[in-house]
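Supplementary Note 2. Why include the ligand at all?

Several targets in our set were suspected to adopt different conformations when bound, so apo predictions alone were not considered sufficient. For every target with a known small-molecule partner we therefore ran a joint prediction. The input for zinc ion is given below.
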Amino acid sequence: MSSDKSNKNVIQMATQDADGNNSDPQQKRTAAPLEGAVCEHCFGTGMEVVPGKGARPCHCRIQDSRRKLFDAARIPRRYSECSLDNFKTEANSSQNIAFRYACRLVLDYPAVDRGLLFIGPVGVGKTHLSVAILKGLIEKGVPCLFCEFGSLLKQIQDSYNPISQTSEMRVLAPVYQAEVLVLDELGATVPTDWVRDTMYQIINKRYNDRKLTIFTTNFLDAPRVEHGDDYDLQEESVSRRRMKLTDKRVREIDPPTLEERIGTRMRSRLYEMCNKVEIQGDDYRKRLDKHRFESKRI
Ligand SMILES: [Zn+2]
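The joint prediction is reproduced in token form.
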């Protein structure tokens, strides 16, 4: 009995090794065929035959489907280069912890039952990491969607305009249906009743459908009541509030909390859906230190 399968008249799937390497020089071809042209490797069949190895899905098909997923994800151009590979982080920093959360999620998906809530000031990489997660998932073939919360609300409002060609449902359907959704800049819009109701409706729908959502927000989280999960945060909250009453100037360094911005009901829903990941930046640290210094003087 010969074990040389190449002698058999069987087409066998050629596979890559564990590192994704393949000694086959044909593997190095990455260019997808031009629009409308027939792929010269698979002749449009989607399967390419590798001499001595068998057949495998042609690279043109894989690239094509990834490109479609990427376009459908509506990642804004300014973030299109963001990936886990180019995220800058220092060892033992809060950014590094956030980075590891992001990698873990991509690695474990679909065996993931909670999304992430990235909290931190402007410029610490919350959106970068969120986009990087989407891109990592798209590489795994997962349909994703990126949404900046303010522009989503604006689109919904515009859909009420009778001249507008879009309906509210047309705007919301992709947001409801996306397998994985990023909602960027939660709480950035002035919280009117309508904004809160709309926000709740969207988030609650995804919660009920058990769909994974990743949020970013610039508003720090400090719970008003006892059900917080972090003693320090509670203590900080109390001092913040005390300062608010005693020193008008302090309001400048005491912006609204996430809860004040999105409401108690929404905040607790977020915690049911997500792991909280706080990222601190230089500005954030300076502000917090100043804040602690001030609260000791009261
Ligand atoms: Zn092909």
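Residues 1-33, 224-231, 245-251 have pLDDT under 50 and may be disordered. DSSP finds ten helices and seven strands in the chain. Comparable summaries for the other entries are listed in the accompanying table.
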